[in-house]
Design a protein that fits this description.
The chain has ten helices and no strands. The longest helix is centred in the first third of the chain and has 31 residues.
Amino acid sequence: MRRFVRENSLSLGFGLLFLLSLAGQALAGAAQMNEDRQAEGLEPVSLVQYLTSSSFAVDVMENWQSEYLQFALYVFATVWLVQRGSPESKELHAVGTESDEEQRVGSHAREDSPPWVRAGGWRTTLFSRSLGLLFGGLFLLTWAASSVAGWAAYNVEQLQSHADPVSWVAYLGEADFWNRTFQNWQSEMLAVGSMAVFAVYLRQRGSPESKPVGASHHDTGATG
């Protein structure tokens, strides 16, 4: 068990942090909702009621879809775009999908390569793009979920203000939906761009997200 935990500590650690953060968001969100309801003279809601509300759902889905967008774009963009000196970029001469030999595909596969790498045809093609397709698909699913949750939350506000609710299609054209969307997207673009540039000149000893401490600022694709 100790060996399993050590060898999977990155995923286990972030999984635990995710659950703790989600629980913290749920408790804080429920408390804020009840403060707002108390100010309006309404009855407080239970934690279970809050967890099944559109308010909680839209907050969670908006965060998830923006994070999956970040990784989907990063996976696809780094195939063709480079940043000189950044460990987040591949080397400048390696722009593009690279050769089968460089990617160890088909006859260039090793004994320990995944089976679909040696299979050829559609299986190799699909596996060669599986990471980007997964993150792209997760982004689309969570974006759709956030639009539904946002629509429900929007209609709750409409009814509370004695206005007519709108259809889901109509909500997609509302400023509320696009304000929520771009608010999340712009923060992800800023974070990715900042990491790519700051990692050119700054170091974190021992981190694979950083170049070795003594590496030149111009070294590209090197990791510590």
